[in-house]
Amino acid sequence: MRSQGRATSGSGDREVGRILLGKRHFSVVLIPEMSRSAETGELCRFDLAGQRLAVIDTGGADNTDQAAGSEGLAVRLTGRELEIAVLVAKGHANKVIAHRLRISEWTVATYLRRIFLKLGVESRAAMVFRCAALLKEAVEVVDRDDPGARQGP
């Protein structure tokens, strides 16, 4: 991060760096100690070297880029991988997923390893975050087609 020292909003926050991630742009701003309210577009706050900082989405990617990203995930993941990702997003453990899909727990773990590799993530939470928009659509379709799917086994 390189220090910019420019004001970014009327609340007195100072931009101390920028992040470019693909086509998305983010600002890292210094947050005054008394500020409790979130900035527009604020993604997270963190402490670093005794300073309170926030990451703010400044744009650079519109919704069509994000939609294209979720469509890309749909192409990258197989139907079974998407099915498992949806069940993980619903909070099911590997054992429950295996029972529901009538496969072994080992097979579920293998699918998860493949999904992690394809998405470049290392945890179930990161996987769900990475494909949240796609999973939301899939969960809505599954719930609409099978009203009993919300209930556990």
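the 2nd protein, sequnce then structure:
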Amino acid sequence: MFPLGISRFLQNLLWDVWLLIMTALSLPLFLQKRSIKNNFVMRKDIHPNYRDVVFFDTSTETQFITRSTISTPDTIDVEGKTYPLVKIEVSSASHPFYTGKKMLVDTAGRVEKFNRRYVKK
């Protein structure tokens, strides 16, 4: 990287000067992107509506509240507060992996439909 005649001390000195110059040149760019006090202001009208939502498992009739950006026209009252409602068929309350049961609740009749189509006659 350096000529052979320069001693190790001078190499280290030149390297330190180079790093100091590069840091000094990049510092104003760093300060432009980020406020020192971390007073970040989010841009308006580009972020989705992130709010509390009730997910309702139709197979076990359990419900849980979490935060989501999903949009739905349905609502439900839980403990005196109105939340958007999302209906799901499988959740951790009904999935065999989480419940330890080998049975999967089939709400759409997919197994019967398969058997009707492909059963041997």
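Residues 33 and 40 are 10 Å apart (CA to CA). The chain has a mean pLDDT of 78.
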